[in-house]
Amino acid sequence: MESVMQSLISGIVVGSIYALIALGFVLIYKSTAVINFAQGELLMFGAYLCLTLVVAFKIPFWVAFFTTLLAAALLGFLLERLFLRPMIGEPAISIIMLTIGLASLLQGMIHVTWGSETMVYPVIFPTEPLRFGGIVVSQVYLYSVFFAVLCLVLFNLFFRYSSSGIAMRAVANDQQAAQSMGISIKKIFAIAWAIAAVVAAVGGILIGNINGVNTSLSGFGLKVFPAVILGGLDSIPGAILGGFIIGLLEALSGIYLDPIFEGGSKEVVPFVVLVVVLMIKPYGLFGTEEIEKI
Amino acid sequence: MAIKCGVFKTTYEGDEAIWQTKVSRFWIALLIVALIAFPFIFQGSRYLLYVANSVLIAVIAAIGLNILTGFTGQISLGHGAFMGVGAYASGYFMTHLGMPFIACVVAAGCVTAMVGMIFGIPSLRLKGLYLAIATLAAQVILEFVFVRWRNVTGGSQGMLVPPANIGGFSFNGDFKFYFLALAFTILAVMIAKNIVRTKPGRAFMAIRDRYISAEIIGVPLFQYKLISFGISSFYAGVAGSLWAHYIGIITPEHFNVMVSIQYLSMVIIGGLGSIYGSIMGAVFMTLLPEGLRLASGLFSKQYPVLVNIFGAIRESVFGLVIILFLIFEPDGLAARWKTIKNYWKLWPFSY
What we know:
By secondary structure, chain A is mainly α.
């Protein structure tokens, strides 16, 4: 029973990181209608950069953390300006392909810069595990859930109260109407990419602290798809819930299905659930249904 | 034998004809002769023949994906896995059931078509990006099956597949296999070219352009979407089967998500909704990594420090080429080819 609880907790932790990445994903989709296949690479970039700043330049973790976020925002901004803006008005499939190309480009460049060996963060969070009635939880996990939730709350507030957030929601809702109200769509697109990159970097740093950093981190980009689609591509609460559901599903299938399939069911179960959910609710759990007219 | 300098068609048959002019027929004939002569000229180079064979197989699979994505407008991220289904099915039929090669290819195509249609069922309700992710799910699920269903697929150790064999003549080795692959490719191109100008082909394009209008004028959406998934997967299955009999040993890594992405990039870079485009895209995307490998081989002699990171550099260049293509030639190689051709049609009086 305790081991089950243990895996459930790690499921929630991983789920919180999925939720974070999914948030960045939905953000880009909501405001620019682009599916970003390079999200995993943005995550990897953040993880590597922060690690280098801490290890090689001996910068205190918190300073490095915020520097990384700044750099990530810049990168997101740059990517939008250089690669995504020329594609405005192209069919969705071309833009998907472009982000796939972007993923390949970033992956290669990260590999060139940082090599392919796994790197480990120095001890940043206290290592002594906490006990809750027999269940052992390492503090990194708690911090990571805390940060993930903090980010999610912050972004929710950002969307509700800040003028940029409101403008972004307006653009997502109706580009033309937003434009005619004097909102600069280009600016919104740039902000969306910058925020998505920042969120991914936070996720990358957290997961890097738990698992170490190597090039397989980019796999998170693909794993987040079930979370995003499950919740509905354009729903932020959906993305968060989807992230936690997928994290828990992975943990549960690790316990109950792996003995049957000799491992590896973690990767598949989220996708199976995804297909089943989509068959019943074609726009995910909370996605807005598109009503098309001639 | 002049090139026509305008549109002089007076009948629908003329407009739909594959051989628009005698000149085009001449050039195609010349191309086929050149393709047949190719292995004789480069008989000594196993590497070139290997590349040529990969290109031919890629052309078959890319045409299949273009029928689904380019003509019917359904994005698929599972094409690599469908190829895998064909490869494993063909290998299984030959080694365990002792079926002859041709029967294996056809049966593998049919099995893959069935699997493709099963995974195409969500397309009834899903559209656009949601469907793309559903096909990604198909990719992940099928990959899992390849690894875990050990009695049939041999798991991660792989499955040994005997070479192709027709009437006692074995197509082992790169040289002999080339002719088999060429025959299949020409057949595949011809069939595809004809499918897209028949009733189902027109239905596909109607669904792509505006599915609601298509439904209103009486195109049964679900039926044609499934047919499109079926045809596309059949092509993937045949390509996979050829690949299996050519390479001799197949493992799940041959059919991972990167392969699917590569096929999607072939179709997009070649040109969506164009058979010639998928040929050009397949040629380009297969030659690009080989060219990069060649270049990195040359450079590594001069800068041995770089050897370790050449894989990564290749990956970046690969990504960059895709990006540049999409930004500067969004309609693909096929469109570029058309522009060039049109320019020469009226040359030197291009106005």
